[in-house]
Design goal:
Strand order of the largest sheet: 4-3-7-1-2-6-5
Number of helices: 6
Distance between the termini: 32 Å
Strand content: 25-35%
Number of strands: 16
Structural class: alpha/beta
Length: 258
């Protein structure tokens, strides 16, 4: 898939939470094809301490408005600067990068999408694409508290949403792997993105039940094209660059202790 370097215009910057911003970027030309699970490398201008682009998952693609959305967690100088973007600002991005999630050939109502924290970001576009195909995905989203559960209304457009919070302020208290849903339903495939311990736990659950499972790794990806070797992961196929061979992998390719 062709990679594009684009100057995109900020159409909207929505502060979802003190630590999260939703950037909606548009273009005068038709945006390129993008797949769920792919990401962009976003240049940060005006930050004297930020020298590298920031890898951000593609959150959603609005083809009607010709917009691409990025859900950004404001954790450092670079992401905080992006969170300050104003309507009309120009942001340079390289996209689409990496390989995305595998879309089943046949529609299914036994697909589970599990996200933790800002790791829920790529699952919105995935859910929309699965629903467009005729599937009825189920979302299981976890966070520290209800304030950290993001875009729930958007997720609900494409499937049933279940939640967990560590403090019990919304949904079931605990972690996603403790949700009673996992003992009640029989899933055919699981897609996961979030903190590595959470992904490992879900992968163990999937493997114990013989369920096909894909995870989106969040290794540090400085260049996005496999040149800097910052994101190398040891897999069944040897050492690979997550930004180029991933970020999505089938758990059978990973050498996690599962």
């Amino acid at each position: 898939m062709k990679k594009c370097v684009l100057d995109l215009v900020v159409k909207e910057n929505i502060r979802l939470h003190a630590h999260y911003a939703l950037l909606k970027l548009g273009c005068s030309e038709t945006l390129p094809e993008m797949l769920p699970g792919q990401f962009a490398e976003i240049r940060v201008d005006g930050s004297p301490t930020t020298f590298l682009r920031r890898p951000i998952s593609i959150n959603y693609v609005d083809r009607v408005k010709n917009e691409v959305w990025f859900l950004i967690q404001l954790v450092g100088d670079g992401t905080r600067k992006l969170g300050e973007a104003q309507e009309g600002d120009i942001i340079n991005v390289i996209l689409p990068l990496g390989n995305g999630f595998t879309i089943p050939e046949k529609a299914s109502d036994r697909l589970l999408l599990v996200g933790g924290g800002v790791g829920t970001a790529p699952l919105l576009y995935l859910g929309e694409q699965l629903a467009k195909q005729g599937s009825k995905p189920t979302f299981l989203l976890g966070a520290r508290s209800r304030n950290d559960l993001l875009q729930l209304e958007q997720f609900a457009l494409y499937g049933e949403v279940y939640t967990t919070t560590e403090d019990g302020s919304m949904g079931e208290q605990g972690y996603v792997t403790q949700h009673t849903l996992l003992d009640k339903m029989d899933f055919k495939k699981i897609y996961v993105c979030g903190p590595k311990p959470m992904m490992i736990a879900v992968a163990r659950y999937a493997k114990s039940r013989g369920i096909d499972c894909e995870v989106s790794l969040e290794n540090t990806m400085a260049c996005g094209v496999g040149a800097c070797l910052c994101c190398v992961e040891n897999t069944a196929d040897g050492h690979v660059c997550v930004c180029k061979e991933g970020p999505v992998f089938n758990i059978n390719k990973l050498l996690w202790q599962i």
